[in-house]
Amino acid sequence: GLSTQPVWRKLWDDVMKTRPPNSENITCWRKKFLETFFSNVLHGVLDVSSDWRLNDDHFSPLLHSSPHVSQLTLCNMLQGAVELTAEHNQQVLENLAGSLRILKFQHLLSSDQSIRRSLVLLLHRLIHHGSVSQVSMYSWPVPDTVLLVLILSMSAGFWRSGNALAYHSSPCGLCRAEDKAQSQEQAQEQAVRRGQYSKREWGDSEHQKGSSSTPEEEDAEVNGCRADTHLNSELSGPRSPPLRHQVCEDMSSEVPCDDTSTQEGSSCCVSDQLSCHPVLRKMRRRMKSAAGKKRRCLRRSSGQYADPEDLYDFVFTVARENNSGLLNNNSTTEEETVENWTSPSPGSPCKRCKKRGGSAGIFSPKVPHRFRSVSTLELFSIPLTGETCRTLSNLLSSWVSLENLVLSYNGLGANIFCVLAGLRALAHHPDCRLRVVRVSDVFSHVPCMELVCCILSAFPQLHTLSVSFDLKNQLEGNRPEGNPGCSKVEIPESCLEQLEIRFPREPLHTAFLLPVLKASKSLQQLSLDSAALPSSQELGLLLEALKECNPNLKKLSFHDVNLAEHQKEVLLLLQDPILQEVTFSFCRLFESSTTEFLLEIINAVKRNSSLKSLKLPGNRLGNHRLVALADIFSEDSSSSLCQLDVSSNCIKPDGLLEFTKKLEGHIQQRGGHIQFTHLRLFQNWLDQDAETAQEALRRLRAVCSVVNDSWDSSQAFADYISVM
Questions:
Q1: Alpha carbon of 154 to those of 127, 537, 585: distances in Å?
Q2: Residue 192 pLDDT
């Protein structure tokens, strides 16, 4: 019954000899220590020989800690992947296959063929036959296209990035076991079919004996029936192996041009009997035509990609053919090209990519996922080219297990519509699970609201949508509109519950937001960031729209929106009987306000029993306004406020101590009953008098949970001058 947390905390200090980041948020020191220990040993950061407790020939640091690792980060030249796939670490890899949930890649560099081979083996074991559910990639300014496509495709459940045999010459043990089980199952099914066909053939022969047909007609019918039976038996015979085994042998690239034993064997066995029935003759012609097309395709593929290990050529030669074909097609207008990108049919991501069956010529969306795939994909600060976006779009079109997609600072530009085409194709899949999409970038290619409308019209099943941009497009005068149909698209009724929009200083027009609000009856959270209110009536119109269209809205947040001249609307929000959390972050609330406005805010919160959280960071409260806020918890208050955030508000230690004393007085008057539980104090001037600050924090922690930091207030000199 004793906690071992202090022991693991001391082990951290003794072994790691560093201060862990965000130590106040660590809930399990055992897990934190073992995960960090595994990572440091794997990457050579920690020398086990330097500690006498670890310097033991019979002790394997990786093997001991691997069962406790739930997330792992691979960096630089992927040395960790090479180490984990080494033969002496086979059991370590097996342990990770059961424990690892999150796999991260950070600061990757270009790699050679041997490293990619190790990475393929690692991803195959951890994703396809393991428990990894999230793949995240960070900070890759100049991505290696081959490596990036490899990670994306294997995360999506494929193992056919170019030529599988270039990485792995034989199926893994798990693949062989599954292959054997499926072969036995298929053999049983074939045996049942053969029995059924034999019974049907016997019954047909008995029926023909009792008929009055001529001998010539009987012979023709019997021969035709036997040919039909033989054909069905051959076509239902040994099927081509499923994708999970084809990926280990490669479905097409390694098949010789003349090796068509499966198709030719079937046709030769029945060629003498096919001519006895006109229907079968027609079927034979169709089979020959299909087989000829396949052989021609294989010959062209085999000749085109001469080097089987050159994944780059395999991925992008077809993409270049698609592009050149479009450029040579003089009848295709620019509008049709945009339409091809943004309005695909339900079965494929882009009309432009139909010619080769894939956005970048790699995968056909019709190929089923035979391998397990991850449910969360995150790409942070990784530039994506047009060809890479087409590859991603094609993967997304059939990635049914994907639940969360995060694309952050990828320089998408107009390629956002290519990705959107893949999402539109995925939305038509009955087993689709995608519910969260987050897109952020430096420059916005189209206005935020147009992009929101496009995404929701393509994917109304989303529960969470976040669109964030820092700046408008550089060419402000000639700003591209992207998809001209976005602003006029009709949004079907959606399942959206959370909407976050960060405007690049764009005007917030309620008329543009209104169609989204009307289609999102289930909306519970709305966050508007860096929006400019074009008129004093705009915020009022927004509040009316929210009240009419979104009766279930529980959380409303404004960040970096100037509300100094919207005091009436602010008070209306604080009086709303439905809202449970209201955030005014850096909204300049008290820039030109009077004391009466502060008292009105306090009275509104005191009378609102539904409001649970009030966040006011960055609004220059100062000491006197903070002390006044303590009256929210007075004896005559009916407030249910649990959380208060007053971070970045120029609060000094003496003001915090006075707030604490006043709060203690109100609690005493109420008999010790208060619902207030959390106070956030980040980036305030508490370092100016450490002793007073410590006393205030000590007394506050007896009342509620206090979260603060050791912030250097000297960095806020400019803000201090502005307050003065």
A1: 8, 52, 41
A2: 83
Phi-psi region of 505 (alpha: psi -120 to 50; beta: other; left: phi over 0): left
Domains of the chain: 1-69 (no CATH), 556-723 (3.80.10.10)
Cα separation, 634 vs 662, whole angstroms: 9
Burial 192-228 (b: 16+ CB within 10 A, else e): eeeeebeeeeeeeeeeeeeeeeeeeeeeebeebbbbb
| Span 623-652, average pLDDT | 94
Helices (H), 145-239: 145-155, 173-209, 215-235
Identify residue 436 by its one-letter amino acid code: V
The conformation of residue 128, written as its DSSP 8-state character, comes to I
Would you state the structure tokens that stand for residue 569, as one six-digit string? 């609307």
SS3 4: coil
Instruction: For the chain, give the mean pLDDT.
Output: 77
- pLDDT at position 210, please? 52
d(CA 467, CA 500): 6
Look up the pTM and report it.
0.74
Distance CA 556, CA 582 (A): 5
**Residues facing 465 on adjacent strands:** 437, 499
* Angle, vertex CA 60, rays to CA 56 and CA 62, nearest 5: 140
For 86-141, the pLDDT digits (tens) are: 999 999 999 999 999 999 999 999 888 999 999 999 999 999 999 999 999 999 99
Q: Which helix (H) or strand (E) element contains residue 302?
A: helix 278-304
Question: 3-state DSSP call for residue 26?
Answer: coil
Q: What is the rounded distance in angstroms from the CA atom of residue 554 to the CA atom of residue 583?
A: 12
Reading the block at residue 210, the tokens are 């009792």
Instruction: State the maximum Cα–Cα separation within the chain, in Å, rounded to a whole number.
Output: 115
Gap between the Cα atoms of 243 and 372, Å rounded: 11
Distance CA 547, CA 540 (A): 11
- Range with lowest mean pLDDT among 334-338, 391-395, 638-642: 334-338
Length of the chain: 724
Q: Tell whether the model's pLDDT for residue 648 goes beyond 70.
A: yes
